[in-house]
Amino acid sequence: MLNRKLVKVLSFRYVILAVVFVILAGGLLLLPKHEKQEGISPENLLANAFSPERYITTDELADRIINQDPSLLLLDVRDESSFKTYTLPNAINIPLSKVLEEDSQPYLNQNAFDVILFSNDNFHSDQAWILCNRLGYKNLHVLKGGLNEWYNTIINPKKPTENMASIEFEKYNFRKAASMYFGVAYPEKVVQKAEVKKYVPKQPEAPKKVVPKKKKKKMPLEGGC
Amino acid sequence: MGPLIPNDIIPFEWNSIIAIVIGIFFGFILEASGFSSSRKLAGVFYGYDFAVLKVFFTAALVSAIGILYLDYLGYLDMSMLYIHPTYLWGAIIGGAIMGIGFVAAGFCPGTSLCAVAIGKIDAIVYVFGIMIGIFIFSQLYGLLDPIHNGYFQGYVTLMDSLDFDPYWFIFLFTIAAVIIFAFSDLIRKRVKKVFY
């Protein structure tokens, strides 16, 4: 009896399978839609946020600016008024509130430049970095310490004391030279220049010796090809 | 989580081993469902056997529905899957040539190897023909290269190019498949029975 029933059911097996199929496909339609996580996963974001890889030191940045690194793109994430008061040379202003706007995307989401984000500290630039990293943008860096650190190290470097390691002196020399590049005038340098002008009398110019150059005789062209 | 190999859950070195194992099972199931018989394969075109149509349609649907569910539940990242690049005219012309070969010989390249494995002589001839075709293609490659590598459309899917919701697409596709299965059964009943 049972066997006969089973046979009867199984004679509809293809119909049953087709119905299962349609139900499964229809189930896809009925699933509650949820927004898919876009950008990188939270685990990756956390790992990136912990990693100090994104930071660039002020010394490194100064070196790259002085060497006129063409791949450098400086982005100032402070507000417009601070940007107008003082900023790094050739920096572009994208206030933190405008980081996600359409106009800022070409600067942030690109592969050609090394973008350096900076603000007064690295606080706002870090926030901008997190947002952009979440969106999966590449080549973003943060100026460690921001403009305050820039001022303390490059613009106004601290003179090392005598008991410090020689490397500190080298660093100081570099920073001092860099600050001069960025337009800081040191009194001792200015004085020295003036002294040079005062004490060294102008030497009379030696008469120019005219050395007649022998012109090379042009050889007549001989049949080449 | 998935795909397993790109996400390093299974080491990359297992790639070919897994491929071989899957290939063995694929061949086994092809043979078990009678796909190494050219009469069965050609039946689609003459209307006395629609097993090929049903099997491949069902396989495509099972995997499509399965992938969408896995993607929805987060077990599989669908954006990481390989999508075959579209070279429009290369695909159209190649598809037509393959179709002619299919209906003329009663094998597709996969099933022909399956049939060679069980010693069918027509399949051996067929595979020999494939080799000749490959040889001609490679000799004329300079001529055919603009078609082979031209008309590149990118890694597109039907859903991208039609701008269609994948869930609706699969649902309509499933209903269409069921209707086609029923319709093909009707045809099969009308056509004179062929014994093979």
From TrEMBL, chain A:
Keyword Transmembrane helix: yes
Listed SMART domains: RHOD
Annotated TM spans: 12-31
Domain Rhodanese, residue spans: 68-159
Top-rank lineage group of the source organism: Bacteria
Pfam family, one: Rhodanese
Segments for region (Disordered): 205-225
SUPFAM superfamilies: Rhodanese/Cell cycle control phosphatase (SSF52821)
Keywords from the UniProt entry: Membrane, Transmembrane, Transmembrane helix
Name the record gives this protein: Rhodanese-like domain-containing protein
Native source organism of the sequence: Winogradskyella alexanderae
Automatic annotation (TrEMBL), chain B:
Keywords: Membrane, Transmembrane, Transmembrane helix
TM helices/strands, residue ranges: 12-30, 51-75, 87-116, 123-144, 167-187
UniProt cross-references to InterPro entries, sorted A to Z: Sulf_transp_TsuA/YedE (IPR007272)
Protein's UniProt keywords contain Nuclease: no
Pfam families: Sulf_transp (PF04143)
Protein name per Swiss-Prot or TrEMBL: YeeE/YedE family protein
Protein source organism: Winogradskyella alexanderae
